[in-house]
Amino acid sequence: xxxxxxxxxxxxxxxxxxxxxxxxxxxxxxxxxxxxxxxxxxxxxxxxxxxxxxxxxxxxxxxxxxxxxxxxxxxxxxxxxxxxxxxxxxxxxxxxxxxxxxxxxxxxxxxxxxxxxxxxxxxxxxxxxxxxxxxxxxxxxxxxxxxxxxxxxxxxxxxxxxxxxxxxxxxxxxxxxxxxxxxxxxxxxxxxxxxxxxxxxxxxxxxxxxxxxxxxxxxxxxxxxxxxxxxxxxxxxxxxxxxxxxxxxxxxxxxxxxxxxxxxxxxxxxxxxxxxxxxxxxxxxxxxxxxxxxxxxxxxxxxxxxxxxxxxxxxxxxxxxxxxxxxxxxxxxxxxxxxxxxxxxxxxxxxxxxxxxxxxxxxxxxxxxxxxxxxxxxxxxxxxxxxxxxxxxxxxxxxxxxxxxxxxxxxxxxx
Length: 415
Known about the structure:
This protein is an all-alpha fold and 415 residues long. It has one domain: Formate dehydrogenase/DMSO reductase fold, CATH 1.20.1630. It contains 16 helices and no strands. Helix 2 runs antiparallel to helix 14 (362-390) and helix 7 (136-164) packs antiparallel against helix 8. It is globular, with a radius of gyration of 22 Å. Residues 403-415 have low confidence and may be disordered.
């Protein structure tokens, strides 16, 4: 127990250690977090009337971010699968960063659900009437919290073993790794089923929603990790090989091609059949009865995704500068496509034929920025703590003043 408490104290201490750039980054995120807390307090006092959501459009920017982030969390499997299934040596040293990202992102997902409820005490209805297995919401609760616990255990155990200077026992983490791989696919599939199962929203009633969710997730997640790993490589002594980044690039390449193909299939099905249910798609892509709020959003997203896909096919995207541009385009494009381009149009027009457009208010925007700041704070602290511990720079033996044991490489600590 003393050793574990010392480990927690060292982690807490490390989170405050860094140069001026680190402190500026953390201060900026803290300020954004406090602004988000203030905006949420206003929403808590006055209710969801402070948002742009209405009786007609009951899901907005909060659920849009939630949908995107669930995919970002699932993308940790794209690092775990090559390492633990295909024994990819290049990704051994960076797999822990994908799992830490999953932990931070799932926490953000839970925060977005909380603010979308309006009143946190409404969680009690879920606990007292846990309608399992009939309700897809209960499946989503189990999937998200289970995935959070799995990644917390895996990351915590590996980092703690590195801190203690001992080799981790495969019995205590390898089975959980393979469970987490299946669980990663399930969390986004269950989220997709949550939308597909709503028969009153024909815009979501498509069998390819779940495959599109997974394809876009396995593109945006590795893209985010590529950018993170370059920051880690530049500002720490942790080694990240170019081959690891190029392996992630190949994953993004395949995922983006599948995502764009499924998008074309969905557009063809909606407009070629010209059924009565095409109104939501027509509103999204071309406007409906003079209402055109989402047209700039969706066409910007399609353009970004198309450019990113084309660049990924070209050999020039092996260069890091162009690859970084591709990653930014994929992250932003998929966020728009899975956010505003997926959630809002399903409510327009309403079952009664009303067209009530949705525009997020500044309260919603500030709360969303605050939650993103919380997630980035958590992930930054995770990376700041894990890098020196996995490198053997911070260990219990060094703190206790005893002789150092044989230092484990990061590959040995995370294999």
